[in-house]
Structure formats: structure tokens, C-alpha cells
Design a protein that fits this description.
alpha/beta; six-stranded parallel β-sheet; globular; Rossmann fold
């Protein structure tokens, strides 16, 4: 049973496809997230860690919130799917959420705790949104958290730097991983 897991947050088409996505991160950030995620999923990085996808799925009925999100990741739309460039093993768990933190879905914490996970590695998008919220909640719950700096993206460099600072200040380790 692994004591580490990697949370892959919001690796969906609407967020990673800088040309067609409804609310994409910047191109360099997207490329970095995809590269490191695929290395993790191919077990070239942290091979013993459990891989867990966290995806945003928003109901079409949330019209006002969806308008702010440019209708990104709405249930039933192609953009809500995990980006096709991500090499997704069938054995990876997938959990849905409709709020920023992965832990807004109580099944995530239960799944990790039932598998003896103590250490979490986090990558994905948006650094100042879902990644930050997930990391802060994970620390509150009692996980040891490492944010993979070169596999976290957003749409503006200053937002990423500020989010990394907040997560580090809250107790998360922030590290680059070579791929």
C-alpha cells in the first residue's frame, strides 16, 4: 500500500488546450503540466505513488457561475473531459468536484486515508484556484503536501508565484521535479 499519492487537478481540455479551451492556462504552463503529468502517469516519476485525477464538473443549471467560467468544464461538454494529451491509465482513480478544493468531495479524503496515504504531491491548474484550495485543505486535514512547481499553471505568471508563496507559507513544500 503506497503512503504517497499524486493529485492531478483539472487536467481537462477546457483548461489545458490554449487554442480551443474555454478557460485555458498559458501555453508554457500547459505544456509543463502535460509533460510532468505524463511522466508521473508513465511511472517515470514517483513510481510507487497512487495517481488520482480530480476533475471539475459544473452543472449547466449554474448559469451565473458558468458565465464567469466561460462555460468551462460543464457536465456533458467535450471540454470537461481529461485532455487527450494526458496518458491516462485505466487504474487511476477519478473524482469529480464542483467547488475549488478536491476535498469538497468527501470521497477524496476517504479514498486516500483508506489507502494509508500520508504524503500528497499536487500538480495541475489553476495555481491560485483549485490547486491552492486543495493544498490548503490537505494541510488542514493533516497530509504532508508537496506542490510540483513546474507542473502547476495558470494564466498569469504573477498569479502562480503568489499562489506558490501562499501554499509554501501554509506548510506545503514547493519543489521542481526533473522530467
Amino acid at each position: 500500500m503506497p503512503n504517497a499519492a499524486i493529485l492531478l487537478i483539472d487536467l481537462q481540455t477546457d483548461f489545458l488546450d490554449w487554442e480551443q479551451g474555454r478557460m485555458p492556462v498559458d501555453r508554457l504552463g500547459s505544456e509543463g503540466v502535460i509533460k510532468i503529468a505524463n511522466e508521473v502517469l508513465a511511472k517515470n516519476i514517483l513510481p510507487e505513488a497512487l495517481t488520482v485525477f480530480i476533475v471539475s464538473k459544473f452543472p449547466p443549471s449554474a448559469r451565473i457561475a458558468n458565465s464567469f467560467r466561460k462555460n468551462a468544464a460543464m457536465v456533458g461538454t467535450p471540454g470537461a473531459n481529461i485532455d487527450e494529451r494526458i496518458l491516462r491509465p485505466e487504474s487511476s482513480a477519478v473524482f469529480e468536484k464542483s467547488k475549488s478544493s478536491a476535498f469538497s468531495n468527501p470521497e477524496v479524503a476517504d479514498y486516500l486515508k483508506n489507502r494509508g496515504v500520508r504524503d500528497l504531491y499536487v500538480l495541475g491548474v489553476f495555481a491560485e484556484g483549485c490547486v491552492r484550495a486543495t493544498v490548503l485543505d490537505a494541510i488542514k486535514i493533516g497530509f504532508n503536501v508537496c506542490v510540483i512547481e513546474n507542473a502547476v499553471a495558470t494564466n498569469a505568471p504573477w498569479k502562480k508565484q503568489f499562489a506558490l508563496w501562499i501554499m509554501n507559507r501554509a506548510g506545503a513544500l514547493v519543489e521542481k521535479i526533473d522530467a
